Structure formats: structure tokens, C-alpha cells
Amino acid sequence: MKSRVLPALVIAVLALPMVGGAPVRAAVNSLGLRATYDVDATFNWATRAVSVRTEAHVTNPGSSVSTVAFNLVPLRQGNANLGSVTVNGSAVGASADDQTVLVPVGSALGAGDSATVVINYTATMNSSASGERYLFARADGIMAAYRWIPWLARELRYNRPSVGDPWATDLSSSVSVEITTDRVLKFASTGRRVSTSNGGLTQRFTASSVRDFNFTAAPDYVTRSRTVGNTKITFYYRAQNATSVLNVAAGSLAHYANKLGSAPYSTLNIGEVGPASRWPAIESPGHFWIPRNVAGNTRSWEVAHETAHQWFYASVGNDQAYEPFADEAVADFISRDYLNLWASSQCAQNDLDHTVYSIGSCYPWVIYVQGNLYLKKYRTDVGSADFWQGLRNYYQNNKFGFGGTRELLVTLDNAAGVNYNHGARFPSLF
Ligand SMILES: [Zn+2]
């Protein structure tokens, strides 16, 4: 049901499904829509105040939609308050639910239509990075923001029992971000800086073919760079061992490019964050975060693992919440294979089609560790040459697109000419 004049009725219809007697609104899935983003933001280091205006130019290649979902993590981790929201210049009654902004678009996005959606919000960065406050914080000498641009998404629940990534967002061909700060900061971000003005307080960044845009910043970052193939790796650091981080980033990137095909982005900006007790490593397209104090094998594994995410999750997308095997198990396998550094699971064997919402604290042991060991055994069973050809095919077929766990495994089987018994560990998919 689509109506220009009755968006409230559309919402009412969406609200019909009932669970346990309470009305439950059906989740909105905006994967498949396309958008470019033009963002104007101020981030105040001193007060932690944030103000963001995002102009999303949305195109709908599919059938008509009445509500569009934008993921926005600061709704959960940044005390964000939604301001005015307009569609083609007219104010609409958008709402925030969990980590999602829901924008009623009336009849503006029929099949083949385009619309300009402007979303304003204000927020306050956290003063501590503990819990998951590091996702939107100015703490430990670092300013960091994760998934802070309202982004077309599948609407997903934020809360989950463990460390999983509760996100599924689609690729954008073009993102332009202008950030103004109250003191001069060095930014490690997705994409690259294209201009600076206002005495260095205003900086503009652009990125293309990315499914989110994140950054870390600090007044006292030092940088060191290294170029591998067509990718310039730059490490923005304060306390880490730059040589060790760059050695693993460069070595693993070259290894993955050799096995799978060239790296997807021309830049990889690594941002040092705070201590690992509060700040985990986390991936981003052309960018990732690494704690200041990890060392030895842990540092090597974290750098190689996050570098691997440039291929799987960033370039080849997947539903990170419902099919985490497709990015986490694969990234973990290729990084541990590169380092020849294996772990054993501290949880009983479980199915590998679990989601970030199930199996509690066993989630990383099952999906990452049992997952990478599953792929290791599979490679032994089908042979190394066929295995790598299959993984290369999966990357090439889905580069800057969207894959998934079943498609991954079927592509591997096709390259190896086998019909493997994946159903034993992926009962919902085979
Ligand atoms: Zn990961």
C-alpha cells in the first residue's frame, strides 16, 4: 500500500503483525536502494558536542517503498537527538527506533524514482570508551566515530549478547564528508582527505564504493606510510610500534591480493585508538582501528584480520548480523593462514549458520574460530589450488556487491567440483 497523503496509514498497516499480543512493526529493509551522501558535520573536541547534516540522494531501482531505514549508531552510543528530516524539501515525521532512523517517504520513491532525504541530528560523544561507548567517543586522547552517517540499511536490533557486528548496509558510489572541529586534528578515515580550509579546522573527505564511513582523530597523531601495489597504507599512531603494524598490514595485504585479486581500495588508513581493555580493533572500508597497546601475536592477528576485512565485508558485503560466517570466518581464516597462527575453540562444536544474536559468549569461538577451522579442513579436503580459485571467484563475482554464506560455499564447491556436506554445520542453508 502506497499513499502520498496517508503515510500514517502505511505505518499502521506495517504495525499489524502481532507477537505475544503486542503489536510489532515489521522491520524495514532498505538494502537494494542506492544513495550518495553529502555530509556536513561539526565535532567539538572540547565539549564533545556533535552536529551532523546528511543529504542522501536516494534512488530506488526496485519496486515502490513507503519507509526508508537509515542505520545510525549514535542513537544507541552517542545520545543522538534527531532534528529536522525532509524529503525533497518537505518536512516529514521521521522517527528513531533502536539504532535506525525511519523516514516515511510517501510516494516519493516509487519504482525508478530518486529523492533527496536530509537528516539532521545532534549528539554528544562519550567521555569514556568502556562498554561499546568507543563507537562514538572522545576519550583516551582519541576522537572516534563509527557508523555516524545515517546510512541505508536493513533495520537490525543493536543489542546482542557478544561481540558481533549488528549491521547490514549497502554500498555507496560517492560519499563527501566535511568535518569542522574546534582544534586542528589529524584524521584517519575511510576514503581520503581532498581539501582543508578555515586554518585547518575544516577538512573534506571523499570515498567511493564504501558501505560506511568511519574515523579516528587526534591532535598528536604521527603518520607513517607504505605503498603495496596500488594501495597506500598510512598508520596514524601515538604509541604503537609503527614498523610492526605496517609490516603485517603490508605483508597480509600483498598476500591476499596475490591469492584473491587486487586490494579493493587505493588507501588503507589505520587509526590507533585507546587501550585494548576499552577499545577493540574494528573494520571499516579502507580503514580500521587498532588498540594502542596490543603487541606480539595479538597485534599481528588483529592487523591481519582487519586488513582481510577489506575484501570480505567491505568490498564483498554480506549481512553481518545474520550471516557473520561470510565475513568473520573468511577474514579470520585468510589472516590466520597468512600468519600460520591458529586458535582452538573454547566452546563446544556448534552450527556455523548462527547469527550475532544467538549462542551468547560462544559467538566468536564458534563463528571465528570453528569457522576458520572449518575452512581450513575444507581446503585440505578439496585441495589448495581449487580452494583459492573458489575464494577468488567469490571475491571477483561479488566485488563491490553483496554476497552471503550459502553463495560463498556454493562458489567454493563449484570451483572444486564437489558437493560437500555443508548441511552438517549449516543446517538452515543446505
Ligand atoms: Zn572481524
Report how far the terminal alpha carbons are from each other: 34 Å
Number of helices: 8
Annotated CATH homologous superfamily of the largest domain: tricorn interacting facor f3 domain
Strand content: 25-35%
Strand count, sense and closure of the main sheet?
Answer: 8 strands, mixed
Q: What's the CATH class label of the largest domain?
A: Mainly Beta
The percent of residues in helical segments reads 10-25%
What's the total count of β strands? 25
Mean pLDDT, nearest integer?
94
Q: Total domains, how many?
A: 2
CATH topology category name of the largest domain: Immunoglobulin-like
The parts where pLDDT drops under 50 for at least 5 residues are 1-18
Bound small-molecule species: zinc ion
Oligomer: single chain
Strand order of the largest sheet: 7-6-10-4-3-14-17-16
CATH architecture of the largest domain: Sandwich
Q: Overall 3D geometry?
A: globular
Q: Which structural class do you get from the secondary structure elements? A: alpha+beta
Radius of gyration: 21 Å
